[in-house]
Design a protein that fits this description.
13% strand; nine-stranded mixed beta sheet; 13 helices; 382 residues; 9 strands
């Protein structure tokens, strides 16, 4: 007995305790190894899980970039020479800037004057895009512009684009005669422009011979009527003492005010007055039932200069002009004819297929210099 405890019990107890301790140590060791393996496996799984999740949710770079509108990613600058007036297209250009992040610097002017500027500047021109009021202006600088993307050109009908893909129409406009409704009715008007050379129209006509669309119409006359007949018509209008206006807008305003009784204009200017002043504005459009050059349907169009320093931005601008957003702007805000499928023209306008239009390839209207010379010879331009 040791300290009152039997020896054998003490020894036995000690042996059993030692055995139990050994078992416990082994169990703990095994448990620790299992736990360690489990921790490694869990860590590996935890490490792998994010990779798997990443793999499951990752978007390829190309797809990620395409999910955002491409327009918002390009940025940069763009220089536009615009023969379209600021009041008509400045809101549209601001929409383009907001959509693309491109800073557009716009030089506004008459299409003919801007074409002359481009020809004078030549390879030194800072312009990237020529946004012209008519195909005549585009044709006059045709050697300075480069081919456009085939997919872009294909968005518009064949008649509204350059046959060699050098410019593209972005909106359509019909030539018309605006008349004062207090003084005239459609029955009082001649069926073609020829009738306005009659002396009875002396002092009653307004026109804008420096306007690009008017000059494009005269170029169409030269094609359809020939030089001599066109000169005779111009001289007849001059002899009738037509009042000269700087452009279409004051011509329509003067007609509505009764300052003149008729004016030779593009169709959409009237609708801007009607939108602002209501149906009481005393003018309406008369689409010549006899057809001829006075019923020509022209386009405003755009081209990219060969020397453009901002080519991607220039291409994006043309793409935007043929987007549904821009085409809807032309239809709803400026009352022009949209040119792409899927965008309807204003219900206030007649369908293009209802107009008696002349057989003119508008890509042939580029001989602007000869037309201006003829206008000067006839006394229409000073």
């Amino acid at each position: 007995m040791t300290n009152g405890i039997p020896y054998f019990l003490s020894r036995r107890t000690i042996l059993m305790s030692l055995a139990l301790a050994t078992v416990l140590i082994l169990a703990i060791a095994c448990s620790s190894d299992d736990k360690s393996d489990s921790s490694v496996s869990s860590t590996s799984a935890a490490t792998a899980a994010p990779e798997s999740a990443a793999a499951a949710t990752a978007v390829p770079a190309s797809a990620a970039s395409s999910s955002a509108p491409a327009e918002s990613e390009i940025g940069g600058e763009l220089v536009i020479y615009s023969g379209r007036s600021e009041s008509l297209v400045d809101p549209l250009i601001k929409m383009f800037e907001e959509a693309t992040g491109i800073d557009a610097q716009v030089n506004y002017g008459k299409t003919g004057a801007l074409a002359a500027t481009l020809l004078e500047e030549g390879d030194r021109s800072p312009a990237d895009v020529f946004f012209a009021q008519d195909p005549g202006g585009l044709g006059s600088v045709i050697d300075m512009v480069g081919p456009l993307d085939a997919d872009l050109i294909a968005r518009v009908p064949d008649w509204a684009r350059s046959p060699d893909d050098l410019w593209v129409g972005v909106s359509g406009r019909a030539r018309t005669v605006v008349y004062n409704t207090d003084k005239l009715s459609p029955e009082d008007l001649p069926e073609t422009l020829d009738g306005f050379t009659d002396p009875s129209w002396k002092g009653r006509i307004g026109w804008a011979p420096t306007n690009g669309s008017f000059q494009a119409m005269v170029t169409g006359m030269r094609i359809v009527w020939g030089e001599d007949r066109t000169r005779e018509w111009l001289e007849g209008i001059v002899a009738n003492e037509a009042t000269v206006y700087a452009k279409n807008t004051p011509t329509v305003a003067a007609t509505g005010a009764g300052e003149v009784e008729v004016g030779f204009v593009n169709h959409y200017y009237l609708h801007r007055f009607l939108a602002e002043e209501g149906d009481g504005f005393a003018a309406r459009n008369y689409f010549l039932p006899g057809g001829g050059p006075g019923s020509a349907v022209l386009v405003a169009g755009a081209a990219i200069l060969k020397t453009a320093e901002n080519g991607p931005q220039a291409n994006r601008f043309l793409e935007y002009l043929l987007s549904e957003e821009a085409q809807a702007y032309f239809a709803e805000e400026t009352y022009e004819y949209p040119l792409i499928d899927g965008v309807a023209h204003s219900e206030l306008l007649p369908g293009l297929d209802t107009l008696n239009t002349p057989d003119i390839d508008i890509s042939d209207l580029g001989d602007l210099e000869a037309t201006q010379n003829l206008l000067q010879e006839a006394g229409a331009l000073q």
